[in-house]
Structures are given as C-alpha cells and as structure tokens.
Amino acid sequence: MEKPLIAPSILSADFSRLGEEVRAVESAGADWIHVDVMDGHFVPNLTIGPPVISAIRKYSTLPFDVHLMIARPERYVEDFVAAGADWLVVHVEASVHVHRVIQQIRKAGARPGVAVNPGTPISAIEPLLDDVDMVLVMSVNPGFGGQSFIPSVVRKIEVLRKWIKERGREVLIEVDGGVNEKTIPVLANYDVDVYVAGTAVFAGGDYAGNISRLRKAAAGFRGRLLNQADSCDMD
Q: What are the catalytic residues (predicted)?
C-alpha cells in the first residue's frame, strides 16, 4: 500500500447517482472510498446505512473506509461488514466499551479504526493503539461536509505519530475535515497516511484533476520529510 492515500468522501457526491460517482472517483485515481455514516444522534445529521453500502459496493473494487458517526456502534458492526466495509472506524466518544467494539470489528472480518473529535484529548486514544489499525483524527466537528479545518488538531497528530513510532506498529493516521490543497501541506508535515477529502474532490466535476492535485501536494511534502529523515539517519 503506497502512501499517502486519497480517500474521497462520498458525503460530497451526487446522491442521486451514487454508484456512478463511486465508479467515477475510482477511475479518477482514488485509493479508497470513504463512507460517512451518521445517525442523527451522535451527530446532527442522517446519511446512509448498510443497504446503501451494499448497493454501491458493486461499483468499485477499492477498499471501503466506513466511518461510523453513530451512537452505540456495536449494534451494527456485523451489518456494515457484511455490506462491504473493509475498514470500520468507530468514535472513542460513541461507545462505553470501545475495546470490545474494536475486537468485534476484527472478528467480523474488517480492519478496525478509532476516531477522535477535535474537542476530545488525544490521550483518549493511547490505550487503544495496540488494538487498532488506524486512527482517524477529525479536523472538523463531525456531522456536515464542507467545514473549515481546525488548525489545533495538528498537535494531536504530532503526539499520535510519536506514540505509534514508540510502539513500532503499523497504525495509519487518517485526517478528515477541511482537507484540501491548502491544508494538506500543513498535515503532511506530521506524516499523515490517509487524506479524506469531500468537497476538494467532488467540486467542479474534475475528479481526476482534483485527486491529482491533492496527491501531488501530499506526496511532495511527504517526500521532503522522508529526505530529511534520511539525512538525519546519516549524521
């Protein structure tokens, strides 16, 4: 898996032709498909459930990165995995027994991730790092697309990357919220692995061009970081 990865969020797609939109962004060069699931309780919006995911699954061979912004996600883990989720991300704030939900996701056959809201201390994630394959750092308050990036979250990413390196585990860092050509260079300084982009991919209809520009912004800065790391190793 070559990183960084671009994961278009279909929350910004045309829902009247969702299957075709998924197929289009795959053809345009997307790495993953990011699916935002909202229940109107944990976040103030409603989106889609397992039947819609199952319906669009046949339009793409890419990994489906399903982000559950729902209360008590343990009730639906098996349904979402059966519908086609390859990655299933739950919020640390959404379940009393988060460790148990993570184990439930892995047992069901998906790769588990945990998400953290901007207002939640990153320390809430540390006890989970030995059990998850990805941490999703929300750079907006979840519930709506098209919001502005919250700059203070970069400190969380910095701390998170340090903890992951200390453990020697392959845990991906994903960022969702206000990701675009202007914010990616900031995020790339903290070695982000997966960029979720909605408006930045779907706006204007030039999906291939939009994804290419995001990828270049991310890869360019990551390359600079890797070169710096190599220089440090040689000293």
A: 36, 176
